[in-house]
Amino acid sequence: MGRDSEDEGVDTQEAIMRATYRALCKHGYANLTMQAIADEFDKTKGVIHYHYDTKETLLVAFLEYLLDAFNENIAVDENEEPETRLLTLIDTLLFGPPERGEFDHWELMVALLEVRSEAPYNEEFRRQFTHNYETIEATLVAIIEDGIDRGKFRDVDPQLAATLFLTALNGARIYQVALRRDDVAQLTRDGLEAIIDDWLRRSDASTDR
Fold it and tell me: Where is each HTH tetR-type domain found (predicted)?
């Protein structure tokens, strides 16, 4: 991300968030310091401390910023058929939005994984990640319930189905980011599509893809 071009015209807090993102992607969480963030910022470190007293308060705000960007990427069109919405959500969670978002998808996944590793030790991180998980889970449940109501999906337990999909999706993203396995996301996508075809979709329901 080009600092001069991308930070031009944005407010100070937004610029701090972008600088933190660049520093995190460059150094990782363990080596992330206020100075490393300041090195990616076009103002002094004092400006960062003016807005955020400590590194922890900055990172709490930064996680909220990352998750907001992530949630914007996974919005689904409520007018689409349930199976189309489900596959679109799966694709977006695995590969990013169809139109490139503000952040590179896999860079964003790396940044979230870096911060998520601290969630067992940080109550606020854990709270935000829990809310994010529950938001995605609720979206999946709503899609599956709608598909059942329309007679497109079998009468399965929507909560169990959502948990199955979300567990597979989260595992695939972590696996691909941690091991740099470029094939994991596509293999997971193919597997989940097979589950939809062979288990979730009613055999007498016409395909809506």
Answer: 10-70
- pTM, full prediction: 0.80
Distance CA 12, CA 48 (A): 9
Higher pLDDT, 118 or 5: 118
Q: How far apart are CA 84 and CA 177, in angstroms?
A: 26
> Which domains occur in the chain, in start order?
6-53 (1.10.10), 65-200 (1.10.357.10)
- Express each pLDDT in 90-142 by its tens digit: 998 988 876 655 677 788 888 888 888 889 999 999 999 999 899 899 999 99
Asked whether the beta carbons of 18 and 6 are under 8 A apart, the reply is: yes
pLDDT given for residue 4 in this prediction = 43
Q: Which amino acid is at 168?
A: A
Instruction: Concatenate the DSSP letters of all residues of the chain into one string.
Output: --HHHHHTT--HHHHHHHHHHHHHHHH-STT--HHHHHHTSSS-HHHHHHH-SSHHHHHHHHHHHHHHHHHHHT---TTS-HHHHHHHHHHHHHH--SS--SS-HHHHHHHHHHHHTTGGG-HHHHHHHHHHHHHHHHHHHHHHHHHHHTTSB-S--HHHHHHHHHHHHHHHHHHHHHHT-TTHHHHHHHHHHHHIIIIIB-TTSPP--
Q: 76 near 88, Cβ under 8 Å?
A: yes
Q: Compute the distance between CA of residue 43 and CA of residue 75 in angstroms, rounded to an integer.
A: 34
